[in-house]
Amino acid sequence: MKLTATTVRTAELPKGKSEAIFFDSEIPGLGLRIRVGGSRSFIFQYKLGPKHRRMTLGKASPATLTEVRKLAARLYAGCRLGGDPMGQKVQAKRAAAETFKPYVEQFLQALHPHYRPRSFKQVERHLLKHARGLHSLPLGKIDRRDIASVIVSVTNAGGATTANRVRSSLSSFFTWAISHGLVEHNPVDGRHGMQSVQEIAC
User: Fold this and answer.
1) What per-residue string of b and e applies to 159-187 under the rule 16 or more CB within 10 Å gives b?
2) Residues 6+ apart with CB under 8 A from 70
């Protein structure tokens, strides 16, 4: 059946069943799931290899049906091209959780035994204090504009020399991140190669 505002509101769970899914007749994979207790949600189901995968598109209501239909149509089109929307959603959530600060702390732990206390404190200050504007950003999403924002802020507050040292510490951190497979490139200088962490001693 075609999912309409009316069917979304009035469809009933078959007697004796704890759950039922009513699939839309126009958009493959789009369904209305009803469970015992009255909960209703939109789902999208697709096949990946030999297995079926299912993802929730949110609480079902007549008011959200139009947007859900558009979303399901896009998901179906992506699946026809070989996409895996559920896998992409999981990856996006993971990337959002992998923020800058925890990895900076790992970097500093690895660096600490190899540096003189004074040099280490400077690097620590650069990354934990001066670069705090990056702390909550997903590591893999940080770009040159984000770095530029930090450098401009440090330049205005502490001068060009301090800003250059912060830039060097950031570049070395991202070089370390590349070597650990955490990011693909260094947003500080745009290069993909390695850079010695010795550059951060200042």
Assistant:
1) eeebbebbbbbbbbbbbbbbeeeebebbb
2) none
Q: Cα-atom radius of gyration of the chain, to the nearest Å?
A: 25
Residue 132 CA: distances (Å) to CA of 35, 135, 179, 198, 202:
46, 5, 23, 22, 20
| Identity at 76, one-letter amino acid code | Y
Architecture of the domain delimited by 98-200: Orthogonal Bundle (1.10)
* Integer Cα distance of 48 and 90 in angstroms: 15
Domain 5-92: what homologous superfamily?
Integrase, DNA-binding domain (3.30.160.390)
- Span(s) in the chain for CATH 1.10.150.130: 98-200
pLDDT in tens, 45-80: 998 878 888 999 999 999 999 999 999 999 999 888
* pTM value > 0.85: no
Which strands make up the sheet holding 19-23, listed edge to edge? 19-23, 30-35, 40-48, 51-59
The Cα 68–Cα 65 span in angstroms is: 5
Q: Could you give the count of Cα atoms lying within 13 Å of 14 in the half-sphere of its Cβ?
A: 6
Q: Rounded CA gap, 37 and 8, in Å?
A: 16
